[in-house]
Amino acid sequence: MKTLQNTICALVVIATALPAPTAHSEQLQRTHLLKNDIGAAGYEVVQVRVDFTPGLLAMKHSHPGEEVAYVLEGSLQYELEGRKPVNLSVGQSLFIPAGVVHSARNIGAGRASELATYVVRKGKPLVVPAK
After folding, report:
1. What are phi and psi of 50, to 5 degrees?
2. Local mean pLDDT, 10-residue blocks, the chain (131 residues)
C-alpha cells in the first residue's frame, strides 16, 4: 500500500511540475522579425510573422497602435469589433485601427500565415487580451 501511495504522490508531483499545454500556444506561432524606433516620438514599428494551424481562432485582442495584416499563406477570416467578418487570401491586406478588438481564424485546410506590421506606443504590451 505504501508503494502505491508513493507512486501516486510521484505522479502528482510530476504532473504539476510540467507546464500545462494550451491549444493557443501550440497552434499559433509568432516570429518577431523587426522592432525599430520611428520618427514619431514615443512610437515604434514592429513586424511579426504569425502562423496559424488549420481551424485556429486567435483570442480576441487589441494593440496600442495600428496594425496592417498581410496574408502570406492560406486564408484568414478577420473579425473586427462592430464590423462584419472579412475573408482574406494570399496577397490581401487589412488595416486594423488602434485599440479595436479583433481576432483572426484560419479558414483554410492548411496552415495560414500573416505578416503583421504594427506602429505602436513604445513600452506598451504589443498584444492586449480583450476582456
Report:
1. -120, 120
2. 42 34 62 97 97 96 97 98 97 98 97 98 95 87
Place of cell 486567435: 58
CB atoms within 10 A of CB 123: 8
d(CA 81, CA 11): 45
What is the DSSP code (8-state) at residue 57? B
122 in Cβ contact with 101 (< 8 Å): no
- This prediction has a pTM of 0.78
Query: Which one, of 43, 67, 62, 64, lies nearest residue 103 by Cα?
Result: 62
How many angstroms from the chain centroid is the CA of residue 1? 48
Residues facing 73 on adjacent strands: 113
Say which CATH superfamily domain 24-129 falls into.
Jelly Rolls (2.60.120.10)
